[in-house]
Amino acid sequence: MRPRALLPLLLLLAACAAPPIVAIKPGYDFSKVGRVALIDPPDAPGEPGSGVAVGRALEPYLLQAGYDLVERGQVDKVLAEQAFTHTDSVDPATAVQLGKLLGAQALVLGRVTGASPASSATYLQTVSNTTYHPVYETRVYKDRHGRDRSRQTIARYDVVTTNDQVPQTYTSPASVAFTVKLVDVTTGQVLWTGSVSDQGDSLADAASTAAGRLAKALKKAWPVQP
Question: Closest Cα to residue 180, out of 20, 26, 66?
């Protein structure tokens, strides 16, 4: 792909983020969901820290929705004590056990399906420059007294074209995609689930924007309705 075509493509991708895809358990009374434990999803392959970035991005929106979140340090401590492997699926027995240990009625689990940091690349772009150089000639003429005179006039222009290599830097935004779900620790049922993706100046920015869009799409599942 030619370098000059990259920037319009990146702007187009940034402007066309797909809407979140959500599913909510029909007829469920979400006001019954009180204390919730958010478990950071596992990192995307090759992107360490992406799981924590998504988890931290979800926290403020879960609180805004009315969920009572278990403190992050307490969750990490219990998971470490139980040698729990971060995953987006938990069997019913493990869900019940974690719920009891964390004093939570539901678990927020997720999976980072894709993540990439912001990057930039510099290319040499050929820029053509054209200059016109006048070529003078001497012309002889007679003045009003009949004497010979001379003067310099432009006879033509020489056209010179040069091709210069100019560095151009293009930046690709950070991107993230993830799925997240709320699981009842008593029944193991999925109460809601959602998938979303977005871009930003950094992985944290992309995750925050995506989490905000997902929270808006899940508004019907908020314990406290606005």
Answer: 20
- From CA 16, how far away is CA 6, in angstroms rounded? 16
The pLDDT value given to residue 11: 43
- H/E stretch holding 189 reads none
Segment (H or E) for 156: strand 148-172
pTM of the model: 0.73
CA distance 57 to 69: 13
Distances (CA, A) of 20 to 5, 135, 155: 28, 67, 69
Beta-carbon neighbour count of residue 159 at 10 Å? 9
Beginning with the edge strand found earlier in the chain, give each strand of the sheet holding 21-24 in spatial order: 21-24, 190-200, 174-184, 106-116, 35-38, 68-69
Residue 166 · residue 3 · CB < 8 Å: no
DSSP-derived secondary structure letter, 168: E
* Domain annotation for the chain: domains and CATH numbers: 18-118+173-221 (3.40.50.10610), 122-169 (no CATH)
Beta strands 148-172 and 190-200: pairing type?
A: unpaired
Instruction: Return d(Cα 83, Cα 85) in angstroms, integer.
Output: 6
User: DSSP per residue over 93-148, as a string?
Assistant: HHHHHHHHHHT-SEEEEEEEEEEE--EEEEEEEEEEEEEEEEEEEEEEEE-TTS-E
148-200 pLDDT, tens digit per residue, is: 889 899 989 999 999 989 898 888 999 999 999 999 998 888 999 999 999 99
